[in-house]
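We emphasize that the prediction below concerns an isolated chain of 352 residues; any contacts that depend on oligomerization or on bound cofactors are therefore not represented. The input was used exactly as deposited, without trimming of termini.
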Amino acid sequence: MKIRNSALAGIALAATAALGLTACGGSTTPAATGSSAASAGGDAGEITVYNAQHESLTKEWIDAFTAETGVKVTMRQGSDTELSNQIIQEGAASPADVFLTENSPAMTQVENADLFADVDAATIEQVPEEFRPSTGKWTGIAARSTVLVYDKNKLTEDQLPKSMLDLANPEWKGKWAASPSGADFQAIVSALLELKGEAATEEWLKGMKENFKAYKGNSTAMKAVNAGEVDAALIYHYYYYGDQAKTGENSQNVSPYYFKNQDPGAFVSVSGGGVLKTSKNQAAAQEFLKFITGKQGQEVLKDGTSFEYAIASDVPANEKLVPIADLQAPTVDPAKLNSEKVTELMTSAGLL
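Result of the prediction step, given as a token string:
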């Protein structure tokens, strides 16, 4: 996947250092050094990635990409919505070349502002249709599955709800948790809205307001289940597997439950990547997106510690995960996830 020297010779240095970004954690991380560029045979150019993915995961991608191509990459870290709003506010003046997210709604927000360039066809070909938007303005780079983690000392699997929608029923009052302010949970609600419509989503959110306990962050919600504070929590799968791979101290009493059967609770959220139309380094930006969806980039997901699903270039998921085909996820076009409407509905229900 090396960029040829002739293709890179015309890539200009991005003058981004003078532009600040107020982001989650406020970090601006130069993720490559001049020595790696020199090893590729001279100055190969520079790009800036606005990153809402896990910082450690994207750092692995960047290090491997720079070693392969010599392109220097500056990473600016923030959250999905924070960075999508930042890009829209900056408009034509944005120093971002590439935008990476954890969930799809932030990508559609930027797409709806007409700020993405088309993704190169060679990159699109690496990603199966179900893991990218119908518009082709960005692409999936990874995925995460919705799960209900439950206290296995209190509940058996046959006592769990058959559908995520059942969590709004009276028998689940006070028994489950979620983090409604997070982009993760709002992506799940976005899928519910697309699958079941506005009326059903409003009804479910009202039931949720009556029944659930709010925590800030998915890991905090899982810890609450593990500590016996609440019976179950609706989160993404990788929080459980990540904790299990470390000490397991926050998940030793917890098991993940998959709704399957194309239920809204079986939603698989696609993490996105796109190249900004205003990028001054289009060739390198497109090559970065191609790299992370290629075999080498997807193997970082398979072999790494993020425990997100590899989705492209025929790379299988981490062997500890339930195979993605077995999740029986509903079909959702990522381009149709509506974060603005979801925020409106959740606010109206008193969840935000």
